[in-house]
Amino acid sequence: MFPTPIERTKPSTQLLYKIALPISIIIWLLPLLAVALTSIRSGADINSGNYWGMPTSINFMENYTAVFTDSPLGYYILNSFKITIPTVIGAIVLSSLTGFALGVYRFKLNLFVFFMFVAGNFIPFQILMVPVRDLSLSLGLYNSVWGLVVFHIAFQTGFCTFFMRNFIRALPYELIEAARVEGVSEFKIFWYIVVPLMRPAMAALSVLIFTFIWNDYFWAIVLTQGADAMPVTAGLNSLNGQWVYNQHLVSAGSIIAALPPVLMFFLMQKHFIAGLTLGAVK
Amino acid sequence: MYSYWKNNQLKIAPWIFLAPGIFMFSLYVIFPIFQSINLSFYQWDGLGAKTYIGAENYIELLDDEYFIVSLKNNVIWLVLYLLAVPAGLFAALFLNQTVRGIRIYKSIFFFPFVISQVVVGLVFSWFYDPSNGLLNIILEFFGFDTIAILAEEDYVTYGIIAAGLWPQTAYCMILYLTGLNSVDPEQIEAGRIDNARGWRMLWYVILPQLKPATFIAVVVTIIGALRSFDLIDIMTGGGPWGSSRVLAYYMYEKAFSEYGFRMGYGAAIAVVLLLIMMVYIATILYRLYQDEKGS
Hints:
- The structure holds two protein chains of two kinds.
- Chain A is mostly helical.
- Helix content of chain A is 74%, strand content 0%.
- Chain B is an all-alpha fold.
- Chain B has one domain (35-294): MetI-like fold (Orthogonal Bundle), CATH 1.10.3720.10.
């Protein structure tokens, strides 16, 4: 193991390390802790500029309920779920199919199609912006939850295909061969043999895509207008514009908006990291 | 019919599986790229008729000082954002221990990457706030003058990049932590016997084994730098006086905001950005191709 395990060092180094850990974490999260602190202050504290002194009162419940009652943040969060969940399902369905096709079959254009998905995944969003907005307008999907869902599914298929295909390549090919010899049809091979084995990949992709889409801001402002279909990222920004003198409430809103992906990460940490670090080791 | 399917199953099946994915991806990603490239030779306000103007949009770009500023900022982003790679490596080395509770520490270090850039942007704008922000409180405490980072043309881009480095470092850290996990312990022991320690060990024994992690860290960081948009929009809106714009942001402004509705001109900016990005995309594809040939 590198660096040298701390247990094998001098006691003074061990002590130093144990002190350094919590201190470094506090410094690392300082900006976030500041927001958490602001989010429980009273409006009076904010108005008098008391951001860092002792809070005159702790308004945890008041502030966090006010965000839901005095602003459409709850509605934005609901939109975010309405956008994120179908996208996760759609992208995983599509990429299971494409990943299977590219991972299992050998045909001439295999690598070409694969590279198309990979390359498309890395292009700058701005090159898609105008045509995708026009397309959404002409399909009647502009400013709707479904407009965002359909675009996100299509775009995420690039990354997900890459992921699924590599995952399927690593599965034992003999399983598929054996089934073919038995005369099992290709669709049945996909459904009964490969899909069950793909579960870990699906879990990893679900958490990753959930986080990506939940945090998407660019497409939210390109494909929506007004509050109807706006997800929480864009909603939070517009709230920040309206509530200039209510920083404690915007802070509370930020914490709420950050919570779902953070929870997702904590609950599914293993899958999340497995997905993110795909290819980081050989 | 049925027997045709039976005999040619292996040839047809992949295309049936691919069809929905290729359809969606072409419709929303592949075709739009070419539509944008085409659009960059037109003048269009998004509503009326398009007028073909040849390369005029590109010629105009050369004289557009805001375009030059955005391009320059992109370069600054690209260079400074890469600091996330060594920073992530050192964070990973710091946390690659097995003391009690270390897993919690690792997850908490990773936090900034999981939260939305909108939240990161808001958090850092408050952090930099000239009157009540924590940064200036700290500066004052140590007897320095306060600065309004996001209002100063000379500092604003660096301020935003610092905010971006926060999640990006966390990302690189996770990549390196995973990489460190799979470093060959025998080689480390061999290195120790040869008296390689600390820096020498890191440089000659560990880093070569971390190459795949480094490659991915560099690639995602470069792509992330060129894609930077959210933080700029949230923290400054490109200001003050357009000094913190990057190409991605300038394109959006030209095409969609009150500054323009100049779709063709915006498309030309996007094409330039795509060309820059293509260098990295080509590198990635080349690596993938090498891997594929090898296996």
